[in-house]
Design brief:
This protein is 33% helix and 26% strand. It is α+β, with helices and mostly antiparallel strands and 292 residues long.
């Protein structure tokens, strides 16, 4: 990546802490772009091999592993004492302050079927506090990123503004998924019907990080999902908040305190001012499920 492509250019006014944060963001952008380029080589390839990871709804390809390994190599070359938590290779503890949360292909089921709705997601925490998030959609060449300067799409600032009345709003509803129908299935289906009736549009995107970034951009107005992992939401949740949107994590029917809530298992995100009561009620009831 040359300087003309770098949306996080150095600024002589940066404090040392800010300059270091921007170096982290620059590395995350480079890693996401390189992983995206690798994944594109397999996207819609006629010989792409798709395997089942945990069940028929959880797929994996050779590119998931290849992309994560490339990201890990870049991180550990620059910050060898980092902790890395990735979807494919798990956690690799380090002694330093940085933890990198990696989803090399968020939306693998889409990727595997040639559906252009997947992205690379990298979130970075320093001493547990998120400081940088990058989501790269290589098919559309959309680079979402955020750090202490705010949230951006490429070099354009993001503002999480949209419709706050359900009758005009679009919701990306990753619910009910098969795992949601294990718990309170009749209630889940009733709630889905109610959302479909109340909202102007309901969409299933199949990629957590894209849904969160689209909330940050104001392209959709809300999204919810259950039983997610930190690599799914670390980057996207940070981008939403830095864009001025709302992100809530739930556990046992209650909102998780904001500090480190990217570790929480269930989430709600909405554009600024988005108080969608039916979605919040779904979060309260469905987040009471047992985990593990």
């Amino acid at each position: 990546m040359d300087e003309s492509e770098d949306p996080v250019a150095s600024d002589e006014r940066d404090t040392p802490d800010s300059a270091e944060t921007h170096r982290i963001t620059r590395l995350a952008i480079r890693a996401a772009r390189e992983a995206g380029a690798t994944a594109l080589r397999g996207f819609r390839a006629p010989d792409l091999r798709v395997d089942v990871k945990t069940d028929i709804h959880d797929l994996v390809t050779e590119y998931d592993g290849a992309c994560e390994r490339r990201i890990r190599d870049l991180i550990l070359t620059a910050y060898p004492d980092s902790t890395i938590v990735g979807e494919e290779e798990g956690a690799s503890p380090g002694s330093g302050p940085l933890t990198w949360y990696i989803d090399p292909i968020d939306g693998t089921a889409n990727f595997a079927r040639g559906i252009a709705m997947w992205a690379v997601s990298i979130g970075v925490a320093r001493d547990g506090e998120l400081v940088s998030g990058v989501v790269y959609d290589p098919v559309s060449d959309h680079l979402f990123w955020a750090d202490d300067r705010g949230a951006f799409l490429g070099d354009e600032p993001l503002r999480s503004r949209g419709f706050v009345e359900p009758s005009r709003a679009t919701v990306a509803l990753n619910f009910p998924l098969p795992r949601d129908l294990v718990h309170l299935p009749e209630l889940a289906l009733e709630q889905f019907v109610e959302v479909t009736r109340r909202f102007a549009q309901v969409r299933g995107l199949g990629s957590t990080c894209i849904a969160l970034c689209w909330v940050a951009a104001g392209w959709i107005d809300a999204t919810i999902s259950f039983e997610t992992n930190p690599w799914d939401v670390a980057a996207g949740s940070f981008i939403v908040r830095q864009a001025g949107g709302r992100y809530l994590s739930y556990r046992d029917g209650e909102v998780v305190p904001e500090a480190r809530d990217y570790l929480g298992p269930h989430y709600y995100a909405a554009v600024a001012g988005g108080e969608f009561g039916i979605l919040l009620e779904i979060m309260r009831t469905q987040s009471r499920r047992p985990l593990g």
